[in-house]
Amino acid sequence: MITACAVDRLPEGESLRIPGEPAIAVFHTDGEFYAIDDTCSHQDASLSEGWLEGCFVECPLHAALFDLRTGMPTCLPAKKAVRTYPVVVRDGVIYVDTGSTEAVA
User: Fold this and answer.
1) Is 11 a domain residue?
2) In the prediction, which pLDDT does 19 show?
3) Which of 37, 45, 1 is nearest to 19 (CA)?
4) Which CDD domains did the record assign (predicted)?
């Protein structure tokens, strides 16, 4: 598991990017935390810089929309899912479990 940040550092409706290989985007929406690969499966764009609406993030480059729960794209131009990761909140800290993936692109 990797540490993302303290819960109070990621307000509702916001996201953060965890650099690495692969980079991971963490989102706080609808009272939940979600983690997905940060790079859009259509083209090299950071999903953490996209627009968040409920459980969906819109890629800032070509407007592909991804479901944060499954990683699946809901519209073109993206056709491939992005990887999702389990998120654990413990003692006020957000952790991302990179050892097991919930969906594989």
Assistant:
1) yes
2) 96
3) 37
4) Rieske_RO_ferredoxin (cd03528)
Q: What is the pTM of this model?
A: 0.92
Given CA atoms 81, 26, 68, 102 in this order, what sign does their dihedral have?
Answer: positive
At 61-73, the pLDDT tens digits run 999 999 999 999 9
Q: In this structure, which amino acid lies at residue 51?
A: W
Q: What's the domain count of the chain? A: 1
- In sequence order, what E strands does the chain have? 2-6, 15-18, 24-29, 32-37, 51-53, 56-58, 65-67, 84-85, 87-90, 93-96
Q: Are 7 and 16 in contact (CB under 8 A)?
A: no
Q: Is residue 104 part of a domain?
A: no
In a domain, 28, yes or no: yes
Residue 105 in any domain: the answer is no
